[in-house]
Amino acid sequence: MNTDDIITGIDVGTTKIVVTIAKKEDNAINIIGTGISKSNGLNKGIVVNIHDTVKSINKAISKAEEMCDISIESAYIGITGENIKGINCSGAITISNSDYINPAGDTIEEKDVMKVLDHAQAINLSPERKILHILSQDFKVDEKSGIKNPIGLSGHRLESKVHLVTIARNIEKDLTTCLEKCEIDIDGFILEPLASSSSVLDSNEKKLGTVLIDIGGGTSDVIIYHNTSILHTGAIPLGGESITKDIAYGLGTSLEQAEKIKCEYGVSKASIANKEESILITGTNGRDDKNISQNSLAKIIEARMTEIFHLCKSEINKSNHNEHFTFGVVLTGGGA
Known about the structure:
Layout: E1 6-12, E2 16-25, E3 28-38, E4 42-43, E5 46-47, H1 50-68, E6 74-79, E7 85-94, E8 106-107, H2 110-120, E9 129-141, E10 144-147, E11 154-155, E12 157-168, H3 169-181, E13 185-191, H4 192-200, H5 203-208, E14 210-215, E15 220-226, E16 229-236, H6 240-251, H7 255-265, E17 278-281, E18 290-293, H8 294-317, E19 329-332
Parallel strand pairs: 1-6, 6-13, 14-19
Antiparallel strand pairs: 1-2, 2-3, 4-5, 7-12, 8-11, 9-10, 9-12, 14-15, 15-16, 17-18
């Protein structure tokens, strides 16, 4: 098999590691192998134990390789966490200085677009942070604004608006160290909610306005689209794992049983939960078994979900986008 046609993605999450191997065939991408392992060594998207993280990644890689009988050498790495920050910036360059000799201005070329994007990212970042993505929003040529692709147009001045996604250097470095120990070359780091939006949202949702909330294990990511541009990205340090811990604390049970109860009986709104349904909580460490209602379980879940959505709303408000989101909020991720 031609390995040049192979694309691999690794989602290094707080609760699980997912490896997907795909093959490019006739302008299509077909998934040929997947591997999932429990994530140990990470907390809210941050590596806290190199050895455990490497072990978890290797386990998922082995499962994916075994499924398709391919040994992968490189991969795109999904990354997220509270350390991810998004900022909107702008830049401008002069295309033509002579209104008299060339009143229409010069034709904008690709090199001009690259130059103005370089200007837009020339911001003062603290030394411990670096730019992960430069996401173009739109361009302005002289007095014409809202342009998506200015190449071929004529003008004297070119402006660009971009959304920059930045990451803490040490967070990226720690993850790079783990992948190096797994003998995997990194094709690139990808912001996970950006990847999710490419999968979940269609062109109308991106153009007319949508908020995507990706509820993962350790974090919940927020990305806002309007007019096919990304207006805001952010993450909050709460996710499905937070709910599991709440259930474990509230019911006095193990994390493993709490996760199982959450998945089998969990309802995020107490008013629609069944007060009559009885759920058996198996006693641990010599404690007696007990029964609770689904309504009691839902009250625990609802409290945390309310907090998650309040924090997501705060992230949405940071975008200062006052127009309506035609398609509202779209939920994705394991926590959803």
